[in-house]
Amino acid sequence: MEIYEERTVDIQQLERRLKCKVSLYEQSLTNLGSCTIAMIKAGEQRYLVAVGSGPIFDELDGEAEDECKVCPLSHENRLVLNTYLPYTHPVANTTKRPSIGLGDRLGEATPGHIWALEGTSVFPIFAQQSIRELNFTDRTFKDVIDAASYAVFQEGYTYGFGADGDHLKKSEEIKQALEDGATMITLDSSEQIDPTIQNLDEGQLQARYEALDREIRELYEGLYAEQEFPVGTSTLKLDLPTLKRDILTYHKALDFIQIIYEQHILPSEHPIDFEISIDETDTPTDPKSHLFIAKELKRRHVLISTLAPRFVGEFQKGIDYIGDTAEFERQLVLHAAIAKQYRYRLSIHSGSDKFSIFPILAKTIKGSFHVKTAGTNWLEAVRLVAEKEPSLYRKMHSHALKRFGDAKAFYHVTTDIEKIKNLDTMKDEDLPSYLDDDNARQLLHITYGYLLEDEDETGKKLFKDAFFSLLSREEEHYKQLLDTHISKHLFLLGFKK
C-alpha cells in the first residue's frame, strides 16, 4: 500500500509569494493522496491552494511554484473540485429531509448559513436564484453554484445541498438551469394561470366555460363534478360551480406543467426536485383548487417533490406575515393533508421573516416541508453596513429612496415611505434600527439590484466595490449576523432545538 506524506500549507511562504497577509480556512484543509488542498484568503481575495502532486494538482488551473499551486475560484476549478470532493456538488433532496431555500444573492452568505444549520438535519438549498435576481445582480446560475460549492468546501460542510432554478417560466430557462447543474426546478406557471376567472359573476363564468372545448368539459366533469373526496379527517366536495372556475383558471397551467415534466424532468439522468409554484397570484389557493390540481397531477403521472400554494394572507418580502393567523392555520391543515395524501411536500414561498406563522407550520405539518427565503441574507449584509460603515449606509439608503418607485414594478409591497424616519435625524449608532422597521426593510430589500449595479457617469459602480470590500473585511461578523437571523427561522420552524 502506498503511503503518502501529509503536507501542510505554508502560510509564511504564501505571504512572501503573494505580498499580502494570508489566512487559512482551517475547515477546508483536505488531504487527497499526495496532494493537500485548502482555501486561503489573501488580502480580500480567496484562492484554492494545492500542495504536492497528483491528478487534482495537475487538473487545477493556477500558478505553481515549489509544489504549491495557487488557483483562482473559477468555474473550471469548481468542476475539478466537484470531481474529487463530491460533497461540493449540489444534489437533490432524495430523502425528503425538511428543507430551506437560502438564496444567496451576493455569493457571500453561505458560510453564515452553514453556521446556522449546525445541529440540524435540514437540507439546505444554498444555490437558489430566479432569472429576475440573476439579472438584477449581473450573475449567471453557474456563478451561483460556484459560490455555494466553494463555500461548502471552505467550511467543510459534507451533508449535502441543493441548487434551485427558482421561479422559472420558460422551457429554455429550465433547460439552461439543468445544464448548469440545477438539482431543483421551481416551475412558475403563473403566466398560464388565468387570474381573472375568480372574479367573474355566474353569467360571465358560464359563458367562458361554454367556450371551452366540449371534450375538455366532459372529461373534467366526469372525473370530479359533485364528487366528495376524503382529505385527512375532512371531506372536500368539488361542486360544479367551483370546478368550473378551477378548470378555467388552471387547465392551461396543468398542460404546461405536464409538458415541462415530460420534456425536462422525466428524462434527466440525475434526480431532480420538481416544485410547482402556483403562489404568484393575487387570489389565495382554495383547498378545493389544490385538491383539483393534486388529482390532475396524479392522473397525468406528473411526480412532484413540492408544491407552493398561494396561502391566505400576505407574504410580502422581508417582513412578517400579514393576515389572520387562525384562518391561515385552518386552511393549512387542509393543504398539508392534500400534500401528504398525494405524496409531496408543501413549500412556503416568501418565507423570509414570517416568524408569527413558523410555529403554526411546525405544529400543523406533520412531517417534512420546504421554506423558501432569499432577501433576508441581503438585509443582514445591509445591517452590517449600518453597523460598521455608517457613511456608506447613508448613501445607500438615500439611493434606495430614489429607486424605490422603479423597484415597486417588480414586487408587491405595501411600504409606506412616509413612515420611514428621516435619515438626517438619525445618529450613526441608530442606523441599524432601520433594519428592524418593516417599511425600511422593504425599501432596502426590493432596491438591492439598483444598489449593487447602478453606476455613476464614469461607469463606476456606486456602492458595489465598497460594499463587497466591507463584507470581506468583516466576514466573521457577517457570518454571526446570518447565524443569529437564520437560526431564529430554524428554531421557530421546529428544525432546530
Question: Can you describe this structure in just a few lines?
Answer:
With 497 residues, the chain is of the alpha/beta class.
Number of strands: 16
- What percentage of amino acids are in beta strands? 15-25%
| Main sheet: strand order | 7-6-16-15-14-13-10-9-8
| Fraction in helix | 40-55%
Low-confidence stretches: none
Structural class: alpha/beta
Instruction: Please tell me what the overall shape is.
Output: globular
Put simply, the count of helices is 19
What is the averaged pLDDT score?
A: 96
Radius of gyration, whole Å: 25 Å
Distance between the termini: 45 Å
Structure overview:
There is one protein chain. The chain is of the alpha/beta class. The chain has 19 helices and 16 strands. The protein has helices at 11-18, 55-59, 75-84, 110-117, 131-137, 141-155, 171-180, 202-210, 214-224, 240-265, 287-299, 325-341, 358-364, 376-388, 390-407, 438-446, 448-453, 464-473, 475-492; strands at residues 22-32, 35-42, 45-52, 63-65, 68-71, 99-102, 123-125, 127-130, 163-168, 184-188, 227-231, 234-238, 273-277, 306-308, 345-348, 370-373. The strands form 3 sheets. A 9-stranded parallel β-sheet has the order 7-6-16-15-14-13-10-9-8. Helix 4 (110-117) packs across helix 19 (475-492) and helix 14 (376-388) packs across helix 19. The protein is globular. The model has no long low-confidence stretch (mean pLDDT 96).
